[in-house]
């Protein structure tokens, strides 16, 4: 690791020496690249930082957000890149990897979402001056970061029945229980175990941001200039959130605002916050849906089981079922790698949106008692059987499920922000600001 570290430094400090005319006593030295920051045993070079800066500038311009001063934008972006570095280092140390097959599927879905073939998508990227190889690695890193969040925050959060009941009780006791908020958010973060002096510095920065808003500055521009939140360079928009997905501090402040207004300075253990209420809407509408009672057999892929092997195994199982040589529930108990295996693969009644799109699309195309062909989803390969369908009013059930999911997401967001803050505080970071 130490040898790799010094190799990166030598590369970053590489000089091209161009000799001057014959007889000159010195060589002229031209700087090709330099180190912007050291993060533990890795570095951020000026070249890679400038590449990220160009992407962010294009994103802000495409969203119609006025660019903050360059030095402010650079400072915001550098902090984001540092946070990503420490998370990627943590992922490498703890064995989080993304193989090429997973990466290829993800890029294929991105191309499909843009209604392009993979070749057309690649050509479009290169036409915009983006290296496809660099794009692949950026997507790989995004997947790794999402897996870090999933493992260190999402999977460690639990929601109890009492929390759900408390949510409904508190909603029933307040006005606007059927309201969702579209929220803008600016966070001025306080370091872990900050001194009173550090807290005052951060408060002063938050007050400066509030002063800019009061002078009429666009919220998105102030976010890009001041906020420490992950979405700072996207204008700070959190999107539509119900009260259960927001801290009580936030929902109380938003209830007092009209669309277009922003809050005063809010203080939480994480730091200082400014909110903007972009819009609000009602959400309690009766919901009647078609539910499907289905079961499945799942074969996961890994280093030992390729996609071809998983698909072949399911094809063999389907042939046995087609020939009435086996019982679906028995095969699920023996072969399925899903938690439903003990119940013969039974998933119970599924509403739209309960499963991933690939699974739902295949399931919806089946008649009652029909078997699917092997279907690929992000979880692996599935064999699906539909047992029956019904129309059901799921308003209350969905409200409870949605409340549970929203409470979980709020708690996971808070846990993730705290996790990243701790990683950042523990990391060795040296910012080299000369000649910037």
Can you describe what's shown?
By secondary structure, the protein is of the alpha+beta class. The chain folds into four domains: 1-70, no CATH class; 96-152, Triger factor/SurA peptide-binding fold (Orthogonal Bundle), CATH 1.10.4030.10; 180-281 and 398-427, Chitinase A, domain 3, CATH 3.10.50.40; 288-393, Chitinase A, domain 3 (Roll). Helix content is 48%, strand content 20%. The chain has 14 helices and 13 strands. The chain has helices spanning 2-12, 46-62, 70-93, 100-113, 118-127, 132-152, 161-172, 196-214, 219-226, 248-255, 307-322, 328-335, 357-364, 395-426, and strands at residues 15-18, 28-31, 35-39, 42-45, 179-189, 237-242, 266-268, 271-282, 288-299, 346-350, 375-377, 380-393, 429-431. The strands form four sheets. It has a four-stranded antiparallel sheet. A hairpin with a 2-residue loop joins strand 3 and strand 4 (42-45). Helix 8 (196-214) runs antiparallel to helix 9 (219-226). Residues 1-27 have low confidence and may be disordered.
Order of helices and strands: HEEEEHHHHHHEHHEHEEEHHEHEEHE
Quaternary class: single chain
Instruction: Provide the CATH topology of the largest domain.
Output: Chitinase A, domain 3
Rg (C-alpha, Å): 26 Å
Helical fraction equals: 40-55%
**Structural class of the secondary elements?**
alpha+beta
> What fraction of the residues are assigned to beta strands by DSSP?
15-25%
Helix run count: 14
- CATH architecture annotation of the largest domain: Roll
Largest β-sheet summary: 4 strands, antiparallel
CATH class of the largest domain: Alpha Beta
Question: What is the mean predicted local confidence, pLDDT?
Answer: 84
User: Spans with pLDDT under 50 lasting ≥5 residues?
Assistant: 1-27
